């Protein structure tokens, strides 16, 4: 991932820059009103708008944050998701549904009017791509087990 960006397939819009986020995560922003599309997933890797990631990702309609691989969704993850005021929080639980999302966090989502979708990462990506154009969506995707 470099500052030159990558082309959005079918257009001349480019992503711009990589920003450092808290905890050493990397955030890639996309300009020109581009709504992100997840192009490919395989065990341990995901491709979003031409950029490949090998760590778990936090994806909004217009940005990608890499995060440390973890089998847990944390309160910090939830707080970051709520800052984006999503209609949907989509969690990719990994290929074998190994990610833990604590029950008490589900209540926080409900209080904030956020619908939760939890599925294998492959299935969750399909939902993200389907919902992304008409809704504010946040996806947290675990790339391995």
Major sheet summary line? 7 strands, mixed
Oligomeric state of this protein? single chain
Biggest sheet strand line-up:
1-2-7-6-10-8-9
What's the overall geometry? globular
CATH class: Alpha Beta
Number of strands: 10
Strand content: 25-35%
Round the mean pLDDT to the nearest integer and report it: 83
Protein structure class: alpha+beta
Query: What is the CATH topology descriptor?
Result: Hypothetical Protein Mth938, Chain: A
CATH superfamily: MTH938-like
Distance between the termini: 25 Å
- Order of H and E elements: EEEEEEEHEHEHE
Please bin the fraction of helical residues: 10-25%
Fold and architecture overview:
The chain is α+β, with helices and mostly antiparallel strands. It has a single domain, classed as MTH938-like (Hypothetical Protein Mth938, Chain: A, 3-Layer(aba) Sandwich), CATH 3.40.1230.10. It has 3 helices and 10 strands. The protein has a 7-stranded mixed sheet with strand order 1-2-7-6-10-8-9, with helices on both faces. A hairpin with a 2-residue loop joins strand 3 and strand 4. The longest helix has 11 residues. The two termini are 25 Å apart.
